[in-house]
Structures are given as structure tokens and as C-alpha cells.
Amino acid sequence: MPVVGTALVAVGLAYAALVPNGAAGADGPQSQQIEEGRRLFAVGCASCHGLHAQGGTNGEGRMAGPSLIGVGAAAVDFQVSTGRMPATQPGAQIPQKPPVYNEDETAALAAYIASLAPGPAIPASDAYDVSKATQEEVTRGGELFRTNCTACHNFAGRGGALPNGRYAPSLMSTTPRNMYQAMLTGPQQMPVFSDAVLLPEDKRAVIAYIVALQDAKDPGGFGLGRLGPVSEGLWGWLIGIGLLVLVAVWIGARVPKVHRKQE
């Protein structure tokens, strides 16, 4: 019996030393956040994505919402914080709109989806902090942006049209955090730029370049969408030459007419 008692005491001490962190976690803040996210998901997301985020179909058997298992917290944070999710209606592309959930609710939803399966995590702030970016980083970011992004987002980051009613949105109001998350997760038509494809320091350089575009001034007074010779040419032809034509007509109307005397 003393041996059994000693063994029980030893097991109890080992359990107390090793398990409390996990046991506390079951009722701790992280678990509560996940449970809150599960509740929010069931109310606002399950109708499209399925009760367990496995994906859902509409009444006609068509996909209503893709599976979210394995997409990670970063994808949820991007989609929800930009108001793209929950979507108001299906379409070729879900537009950005004011967010439905606040920051705490968004974090809870992200924590719940992250608890289902591994996926890209929300990046730490220093991953996208470009407040101290050097001119060299901005220049390198511009090179990477023109190589990988301008085909869709325009060389000035103003967005552009894509086939089948889709489009690349303007980046002029996108936050550095969401830029990083978009590259990491590839929302909608955007390809995924994982850390194996685009290194974290390269992502930060691209963000520094886009932020420089956001802060850039227009020396001429009018940016004209920064679309280059297209908008500038239209301005020249429609406005410039149009004004010249009006001036010519006005001058012609003001010049007195000379009448020949009948012989």
C-alpha cells in the first residue's frame, strides 16, 4: 500500500506540474475567444460556409461558400476586416465595404477558423511596419511590384479590369496589414505569394513602395487617375482641343462680316 500511495502522489505531482497550463487553456482567454468565434460563425457565416466551415451549397446544388478549413487566421482577418465577408450577395467578385464585425469579433472569428486546421497566421506588426523603410527598400519594392503586380493592379496601384466581370481593386486605401495578408493568402483572383515565393522582407519592400504611392503628391495639380498617357491624352483632346474649338467659334462670331457691294 505505501508503494501504491507513493505512486499516486508522484502521478498527482506530475499531473499538477505538466497539465495546469493546458487545463487552464481550456477555460482561458484563448478558448473563450474561439468559442465566441464559433458562436459568431454559426450565426453569420454557417449559412454559406457550412456549420463546421466545411463549405456549403445552395438549394440548386451549387457552391454557396468554400470550405474554410485550413485557410488560416490571416485569410479571415483580411476578408472580414475589409467588409468583403459576410457577402451581401454572390457575384463574380465580392467588393470591399464597411466591416460588419468589430476588431474583437473579427479576432474571434479568425481564432475559431485557425483552431480547425493549420493555416497562415495573422502577421506580427513588425512584418508590415514600413515606417522606417529606406529609399533602397522602396526602390526594390517598386521593382518587385512592377514585375509581379502591375498586370492587374496597374503600375500606380489604382487597380484594373479582369475577365468575366472581375477586377483588381485599387490599393490606395489598403492598409499595410491587409497588403501583407493579401499576398500571404491570395484572396479571390489574386495568386498566393507565400514566403517561399516572396520572402517576408520582399513583401515588406512591396508594401513600402505602395505606401509611397499612397503618400505621393501630384505636382501638376491633377492626378488624372495616374493612368499615364491614356487619361492625359483624353484630357488633351477632349478638354484642351475642345476649348480651342470653342474659342475659335467665339472669335468667328465676334469678327464683323464683310459684305460685297453689288455691282
UniProtKB/TrEMBL annotation:
Signal peptide from the UniProt entry: 1-16
UniProt keyword annotations, A-Z: Cell membrane, Electron transport, Heme, Iron, Membrane, Metal-binding, Repeat, Respiratory chain, Signal, Translocase, Transmembrane, Transmembrane helix, Transport
Domain Cytochrome c: 32-117, 136-214
An example molecular function term from Gene Ontology annotations: heme binding
Pfam families per UniProt: Cytochrom_C (PF00034), Cytochrome_CBB3 (PF13442)
Residues reported in the UniProt entry to bind heme c 2: C149, C152, H153
Residues engaged in binding heme c 1: C45, C48, H49
E.C. number: 7.1.1.8
GO cellular component: plasma membrane
Protein name, as recorded: Cytochrome bc1 complex cytochrome c subunit
Organism: Kribbella soli
